[in-house]
Structures are given as structure tokens and as C-alpha cells.
Structure prediction request, 290 residues.
Amino acid sequence: MTRYIPFLFVFLWSTGFIGAKMGLPYAEPYTFLHIRMVLTCLLLFVAILLLKKRWPTSWKLTGHVAFSGGLIHIGYLGSVFTSIAMGMPSGMTALVCGLQPLLTAVAAYPILGERVKPMQWAGLFLGIVGVMLVLSEKIDLANPDQLFNGFSMAAVGFAFLAVTSITASSLYQKKYCTEMPLMTGTFIQYLVAAIAYTVLAYSLETVEVQWTGEFIFALFWLIFVPSFGAISLLMWMIKQGAASKVASLFYLIPPVTALEAFLLFDETLGLIAVLGMVVVSLGVWLAIKN
Prediction:
């Protein structure tokens, strides 16, 4: 049963980009994340009380957990939402974030001592090629002047900040947070994010929300699916496996996101994109198998 967890994680995580695209027209990014994190904390805290889950055994571990949570929920998630809110397509943002496995593989050896085998490097390289193929139809390389039409370089910068943050979070989590109780540790991480986004929203934004049916659906989908489901699976996989192998799963997220965008928003997928999905799958198989 556990062998299917990575594929479930990929699906749940990919819907985060779709949920952001669906909900951001009705609320500013930090306001959206403020509401999401506060509600997530409340629901998770109730579950912790009912299930009587244990808390981290030391303040040192609590600090590591909180810092790791800041990297993923503020550095990564906040940057993704900001990038999409600034006009960068969700698929392109997913493409940049899909570079995480390469960054993780490069950093895992000096930080964690995890050696990356030649076939894993081959898989990582194929992953990059496949991601580029999947989303190549969204980028007009023949017209460089219009390459970033509709969004600024700042949006691109936030996308790269996102992938850097989630890479750092994965490595930090693996190095310092392996003893983290899953449910209470996750609550601490969301609490850090809730406080940060409350300050950011009320300091930088109007905190106005259009409570449409689409926004409410996106909000609760993001709370129960990526926030509860995907994050819990990610923490479990980091604890169980090598950081570079877990990171390889992120190569699957851009093509899955592209497929979801096709089904939900009628974005077309050409032959090159389909070929890219096959290449990505092969790359992930090589990285995980070896």
C-alpha cells in the first residue's frame, strides 16, 4: 500500500497550483493564505485534542520544526501565491518549482551525506528535459520580447524563491526534524505561517475577499487536500526516505498540473507535452529505482 503514497502525494500537491489559480481572483495572496492557515490551524488543533496526540519533546526540536515550517509555508507557498498573483501562469510556476530535485541532489551530499548515483543523475536530467517539454507550449522561445508577456521579472524571482525555499525545507526537515510528531509538528508549522500571513495581510493588503462559490471551494480544497493530505505525506516520505528520492517526485507535478489545467480550464496539451510526460515519468523512475 505504501508504494502508492508517492503518486497520491503528486496528485494532492499538484492541485495546490490549481486551487491558487481558482481562488486568487477573489482575494489578495497573503489574505488568501491568512484565511487558509488560520482555519487549518483551528481544525488541526481540534483533531489533536480529540486524538490526544503528543507534542515535541524539547524546545530545540520545536524550534527546528517551526523554522522548517517557515521555509515551506512562507518561503515556498507564499512565493508561489505571490508569483501567480503577479500574473505568472500556474503551469510555468510549477515548472520552476519542478527544478527542486536537481537543487536537492546537488545539496544533499554536502548537507546530508547522501551520494547520488550516476543513474540518478540521469533520471534528474531527464526530469528537467521532460518538464521543459511539457510546458514548452506555454513559452514562446521564438519571440523573446514576449517571453514574459503579462508578468514581470519579479514574478519569476518569486518562483525561484519558492523552489529554493522548499529545497531548503526538505533538507532541513530531513536533517533536524526526523523525530517530529507528525500531527503536532505540522500544527506548529502551520501556526508559524498563520501568524506570519496575518501580519503580512493586515500590513500590506486590503484584506478584502469576494466570498464567491468558487473562492470558498478553492479555500476548503486547499485546506483539506494540500494542507492536510499532501503536507502530511511529504513529511512522512522525508522521514522514511532519502531526500533526493523524495525530491524526484516533484518532477511529476508540472505535467500533472498541466493535465489538470487541461481538464478544468480547457488548456490544450499537444504531442510534445505528452512526450514530455513520458520523459518525466522515466526520469522519476530512474531516480527512485536507483
Notes: The mean pLDDT is 82. The two ends are 21 Å apart (CA to CA).
